[in-house]
Q: What sequence folds into this?
């Protein structure tokens, strides 16, 4: 069944609590790994990132050794087994346990899939039991994505709880605001949601726009100037040339927007644009620059723009600056104009 990121987080957590192994599939770059690390951080677990496509059967079943007059299998060091001490966090205190992340599971050849049966179902490496505080999550790409995917055996299928991840632009822009990504990126995605994820299995560009590559694009915006001749080639090599040209064109709109100082000086007289693309850029700029000190004046101007863009502006403002929600001017606007804001 297809799920959004917020749903996947809840369902993977529920699967772990039920002592099951969730298998999260999705197209490359849609955020599967990020979900796993998000869950690990929330529950104070240390991630063990194990790429099944790069494993040998002995990595999962244990390495053959001699124990007295008998043969045995010794588990690899990265597997926590019964009796091991809990891992230490950065503060030197014990964490709650581990999250064993079996990534690239759909790329694993049949021999590795077979070696994983016991690990996934019985929580054992050879004759050794995993530590009781080990959670397991698997992930991989879809068979339809031309991403070097191996058919999954029916025996492995029945050992997993299957979820398929889809990208939701609304959820992603909320995450981008809360994570401090350049507001121009989320403004652009709000204006053109289809440009968040342009992946198709038969695409001919060297890359494509997706949550992963938009985060790369954010890094490029941080280290290049707006007028830099290098920005277009760098973004084209990250989110594809077509999307990069569209995005840079959208960014030029900001140069024509009224400045924050102008709005604060004359919030009742500064012109309000009507073009949707300009309004998306304007609301993003306002939310990026709004603070406790200037929100009273800026809100006078915001109240003059179409109500749906007022909501966009205030949602983005609070996502980027949660403490501002207690400001009297914000509270007054919510009580009077934005019952649907949250």
A:
């Amino acid at each position: 069944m297809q799920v959004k990121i917020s749903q996947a987080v809840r369902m993977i957590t529920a699967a772990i609590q039920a002592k099951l192994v969730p298998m999260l599939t999705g197209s490359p770059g849609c955020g599967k790994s990020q979900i796993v690390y998000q869950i690990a951080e929330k529950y104070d677990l240390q991630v063990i990132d194990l790429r099944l496509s790069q494993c040998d059967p002995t990595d999962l079943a244990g390495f053959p050794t001699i124990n007295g007059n008998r043969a045995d299998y010794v588990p690899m060091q990265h597997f926590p087994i019964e009796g091991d001490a809990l891992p230490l966090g950065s503060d030197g205190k014990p964490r709650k346990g581990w999250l064993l992340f079996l990534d690239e599971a759909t790329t694993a050849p049949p021999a590795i899939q077979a070696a994983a049966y016991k690990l996934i179902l019985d929580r054992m490496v050879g004759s050794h039991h995993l530590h009781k505080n080990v959670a397991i999550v698997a992930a991989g790409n879809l068979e339809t994505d031309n991403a070097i995917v191996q058919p999954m055996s029916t025996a492995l299928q029945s050992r997993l709880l299957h979820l398929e991840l889809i990208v939701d632009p609304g959820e992603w822009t909320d995450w981008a605001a809360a994570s401090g990504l350049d507001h121009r990126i989320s403004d652009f995605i709000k204006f053109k949601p289809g440009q968040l994820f342009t992946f198709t299995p038969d695409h001919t560009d060297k890359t494509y726009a997706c949550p992963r590559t938009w985060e790369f694009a954010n890094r490029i915006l941080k280290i290049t100037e707006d007028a830099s001749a290098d920005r277009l080639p760098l973004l084209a090599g990250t989110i594809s040339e077509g999307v990069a040209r569209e995005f840079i064109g959208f960014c030029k709109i900001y140069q024509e927007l009224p400045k924050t100082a102008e709005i604060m000086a004359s919030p009742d007289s500064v012109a309000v644009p009507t073009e949707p693309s300009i309004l998306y850029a304007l609301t993003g700029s306002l939310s990026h620059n709004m603070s406790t000190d200037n929100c009273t004046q800026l809100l006078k101007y915001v109240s003059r723009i179409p109500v749906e863009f007022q909501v966009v502006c205030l949602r983005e403002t609070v996502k980027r600056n949660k403490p501002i929600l207690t400001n009297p001017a914000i509270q007054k606007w919510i009580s009077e104009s934005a019952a649907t804001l949250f």
